[in-house]
Each structure stands twice: as C-alpha cells, then as structure tokens.
Design a protein that fits this description.
InterPro entries: ClpS_core (IPR003769), Ribosomal_bL12_C/ClpS-like (IPR014719). This is ATP-dependent Clp protease adapter protein ClpS. GO terms for molecular function: peptidase activity. It holds the Pfam family ClpS. Strands 2-1-3 form a 3-stranded antiparallel beta sheet. It has a domain of 62 residues: Ribosomal protein L7/L12, C-terminal domain/Adaptor protein ClpS (Ribosomal Protein L30, Chain: A, 2-Layer Sandwich), CATH 3.30.1390. Helix content is 37%, strand content 18%. The chain contains 3 helices and 3 strands; from the N terminus they run βααβαβ. With 106 residues, the chain is of the alpha+beta class.
C-alpha cells in the first residue's frame, strides 16, 4: 500500500475541529483525522446526506460539518486510527467528495 502525502493545514484556527460527534473525540490511541474539503461540484444537501449516511452523524451535526466545509473550506469529519481514516477517506472519494487524512493536531 503506498503512503498518502502529508497534508499541511491551510489554517491553524482551533475552532476547525470542534463540531465532530462525541463518539469521534481524540484520544491517545486515535491520532488521525479525516478532512473533507470544499469543492465546486457537490450540493450542500448531498454533503449533509453523506455525513449522515456514512458516518451516522445526526442531521444537526452533519449540517454543521457541511456548513464548515462550505464556509471555511474544510471540516474534520472523523477521528481514529490510521487504518480507519484511510477507509473513511476512500469512502469519501467513493461519494465524490474531496478528502484527505492527517495526524490530529497538525
């Protein structure tokens, strides 16, 4: 399996990671995050649907994450092990969304 390139955050503002569902909180064992990036193609309703259906986020959380993607250009949508985040990134690509992974806190 080839390694993915390291992602450099476009903003280091601490508020970017605040709206992730409670079951996806950072821990010492889960140092990786999946980031979904804004794109000019997908409708906001579709992005909300993906966050609800794939991640199981409640509608309110899915809408908050979608708004963050739309207004700030990106949102952290899941946290976990490297392997789990690789699966999530591939799933987002399967839905047609732009997604990357990076170490939490970077």
């Amino acid at each position: 399996m080839c390694a993915l390139p390291r992602v450099v955050p476009v903003s280091s503002a601490p508020h970017l990671d605040e709206v992730v569902a409670s079951d996806a909180q950072t821990s010492v064992d889960d140092p990786w995050v999946t980031i979904v990036w804004n794109d000019p193609v997908n409708l906001m309703t579709y992005v909300t649907y993906v966050f609800e259906s794939y991640f199981g986020h409640p509608r309110t959380v899915a809408e908050q994450l979608m708004r963050r993607v739309h207004t700030e250009g990106r949102a952290v949508v899941s946290r976990g092990t490297l392997e789990a985040m690789e699966v999530d990134v591939q799933a987002m690509h399967g839905f047609g969304l732009w997604a990357t992974l990076q170490r939490s806190g970077h």
